[in-house]
Structure to design on (231 residues):
């Protein structure tokens, strides 16, 4: 990217799992964006002008607007992937598809059961649990989904497992999923998670640009490998 061009703009919301995984990939890539924190109940008109669908994340680049979180991840990693997140088996994409499809649907039906009065929340939680039980088995012999190294699939999926776990933490912790619980706990204790969860004030036009990652963290982010996401 030319030094004369402003960085891409990332409209984000701190707690949204879709926005979280976009920030994870941007942090891992070592690229820099201008982060604009959105309040979902009071969306900035500039945000809606960029993406009328009104959901985060949205990445505005010199060549166009990227409106899907997984596409933001690929945008960042295809430009710079120093930690090799894209070096995963094809099966990784199948896991991500299951997460974004049946699991996320069941998660929403469980977490927001009041919105779905015609559905049985316990049955929906059971459907979500099928995916989580499979994840637990996949991680049984390694730290990450495909071995000792974190990949794109791990970081695309883990924000949604966190969201599900937080919907009823005592229930989640009581399940016979030690590998999955260890995987999630390791992520939550990581420096990487702390960096993407920094709190920012609501953005509004005229605010000075906020770079993400913070320039001081760019070098440090490339060192979060063995200690944070390696063995």
């Amino acid at each position: 990217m030319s030094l004369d061009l402003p960085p891409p703009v990332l409209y984000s919301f701190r707690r949204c799992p879709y926005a979280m995984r976009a920030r994870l990939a941007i942090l891992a890539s070592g690229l820099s964006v201008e982060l604009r924190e959105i309040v979902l109940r009071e969306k900035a008109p500039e945000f809606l002008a960029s993406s009328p669908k009104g959901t985060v994340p949205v990445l505005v680049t010199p060549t166009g607007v990227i409106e899907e979180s997984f596409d933001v991840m690929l945008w960042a990693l295809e430009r710079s992937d120093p930690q090799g997140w894209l070096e995963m088996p094809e099966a990784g994409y199948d896991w991500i598809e299951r997460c974004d499809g049946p699991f996320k649907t069941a998660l929403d039906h469980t977490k927001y059961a009041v919105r779905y009065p015609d559905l049985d929340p316990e049955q929906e939680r059971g459907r979500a649990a099928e995916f989580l039980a499979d994840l637990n088995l996949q991680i049984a012999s390694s730290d990450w989904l495909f071995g000792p190294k974190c990949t794109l699939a791990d970081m695309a999926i883990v924000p949604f497992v966190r969201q599900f776990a937080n919907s009823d933490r005592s229930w989640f912790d009581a399940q016979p999923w030690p590998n999955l619980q260890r995987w999630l706990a390791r992520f939550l204790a990581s420096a990487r998670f702390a960096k993407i969860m920094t709190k920012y004030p609501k953005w509004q036009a005229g605010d000075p640009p906020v770079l993400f990652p913070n320039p001081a963290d760019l070098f440090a982010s490339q060192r979060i490998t063995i200690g944070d996401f390696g063995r």
Remarks:
- The longest helix spans residues 91-111.
- The chain has a mean pLDDT of 92.
